[in-house]
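Moderator note: this is an archived Q&A kept for reference. The question asked for a predicted structure of one protein chain; the sequence and the answer are reproduced below.
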Amino acid sequence: MLRALVLALLLAALLAAPAQAADVRVTNRLGVGLVLDLPHHGRAGGEILLSERFRARIRTERGLIEVVANGRTGLQMGTWTPNRTRIRELGVRIDLDRVHLEIGRHAVIGGGWRLVDGVQALARPWKAFEVGGWLGLLPDPWTTAPAPRFGGGPIVRWRGRGWQAAVVAEIAGTATGLDRLALRGSGRVEIGKVVDLAARAEIANGGPGVRAEELGVTAVIDPSPLVRVRAGWSMNGGRAYLQGVQRDPSLTRWWQRWTGAGPTDPVPWEQATDAATHGLHGRLTVAPQLFDGTLLRFGVNARAGIRPSDLPNSTARIAAEGGAQGLLGGRLDLVATGGALRWGRTWRGELGVTGWLGPDNGGRLQIEAGARVWLGRRPDGVVTPSVAADLYVDWAIVRGLGLAVGYRLDNDLDTDRWNTVHTALLRMTWRLDVKPGSPKRRTP
């Protein structure tokens, strides 16, 4: 179904493009995965996952036309019912000299987490200024399932050299009437290629009066090529807060490998329905390079999730890391971490190590392995270790066709809910990259 819609949109875009189209490029990534929850105390199961990322770029003398699709779905083995279906993008973008148009399902321009099934149009009176609006149906931002809601609003964007800003409004409701008004502003500025500042704010009137739904500021400072400092604060009023990633960042890597999700796609543990959550994060990285090309990396990473409505269950994680990239002639990377984690009203110590190995010079085979151990007192007073480990093998069979095999162990199910003790992954990926004036070419 997804492929048929993509082909239909591509055909429409090709028909709309003028005859003197000068540049066409098509990229595609199709993934088929099998995930098995290995038997443990009577618990077992499996899931087949399909993911698709498609992009066709048609550049003409007038501008650029893009047909895009980004989605995935799963089938629960045994019942064969769909599971984890997500379609985050499916539509056409047209960018001309004075007009920008998006038709289909896209993220609302400058709208943060919003998705819209509809139309977005911006006029560009001059290069640094755009004004327009969006209108359509509003799918669920987490599951992407259709919802009986509609919305729209104006969009204003300013962009210059080293800075950008946007203001987006939302007027939304159902067949019974309007029930939400919101205003979102965001901006970013780069100062001398040393400081990068970004900020966002959203206020809404839906429910108990006007409230701040999202606030945030992030600063990235690069005082030298060897040092980077990143710090930020955010507040989300029930939209999202990090859970599992605070405990084990490798969970994000596992999820992306499992589903083919993109780095910016929401992961399952980001949804929350409680009151406002405040997040603090900071990171310092130092990466000197040795004379033989080996890159050392040291850093300190801290993150906290604070819920004023439930302070005892606030989370925190602080960890130091050290490692080297480019060992054994560029074939081996190693990173070790150590720190402390607050989860479920208790503190636990943490130690971990992760390694990446490329046995062959051609990069066709890559091995990644990691392990983490936590030791702390449970709420019942018992001191017990928790272990998480994973192993991945990626093999580029031929150009464009890849196979990934993985295994994950996690004996601490209380903190991740959806996870199981033993999980195995088998995933096949096919990539296509076709450029104008060249034969069909597949890239791994």
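Archived answer notes: The chain is about 5% helix and 65% strand.
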